[in-house]
Amino acid sequence: MTMDLTLLKTQRKSFRTSFTVCAKKIDDEFLKEAPELTQLSILKSQISDKFARLETCQAEITNLILKAEDAEQAYEEDFLSAEKYRDNYIELCSQIEQLYLKDSSTKDFSEKRTFKLPKIELKKFDGDAKNYLSFWSQFRKIHEDSSIPNEDKFQYLLQVVPKSKAARVVESFPATADNYQKVISQLQERFGRNDLLVQIYVRDLLSMVMKKAATGRSKTDLPALYDELEAKIRALESLGRTQEKYGDFLSPLAESCLPEEVLVAWERSRNHSFKQRLKNPEL
Length: 283
What we know:
Elements: H1 2-31, H2 37-67, H3 72-112, H4 132-143, H5 150-159, H6 165-171, H7 177-191, H8 194-215, H9 222-238, H10 243-255, H11 260-279
Helix pairs in contact: 1-2, 1-3, 2-3, 5-7, 8-9
InterPro entries: DUF1759
């Protein structure tokens, strides 16, 4: 049995050497900037064959070891040595599969798009709090991208704040990675607080009401008024002030901007709908 075990271990040594050489080729392929999937597919087939032969030999060695007296320590040492090759094999196969999936998803995405998208330019922020939401909705993609270093994010931020109140805030910090998060926090505190933005949009609505009262509601351009009201109400909704929660407050403000005849017609329509619901509760 000792001679058989010695011969099997010699055979296993050759299998392990062959396996290690193939694994090294796969590692070298992964180190390339653009690994070749065809070559990796070939190498995967080769290492699968080598691992299968290695496992067959290992199984025979294990059986012989377990038949010997006081085999516990020898078995444990041999098992741990074999596990290293199993783990390496599984890891390499998993990496190759991940690369296949990534390549497949990239191809699917590129095949769906049959046109070239225009380049997106970063929206500038001039320090007007009313423009903060649209600015941040775009810049947050850079802010949340973990692959971009903070010092680079700081440089992007400097490019999107022209000479303004926002620029003064940003430029008051040295452009370092450690200061980037401090600058973002300061911008949000100065221009992006929800309570501040709500006050600004509500004041805009009140300003519209005062303007209509001064100029006369009969001269109102209804399409323009509708677009302006919708823009402000959508901005408030994005801040959590929905019509469902704050309709009792927002509706009178919006109605105050309407021409008298439109408001009368609106009230009649609303009263009619209310009466219909009383007659037919299921409506």
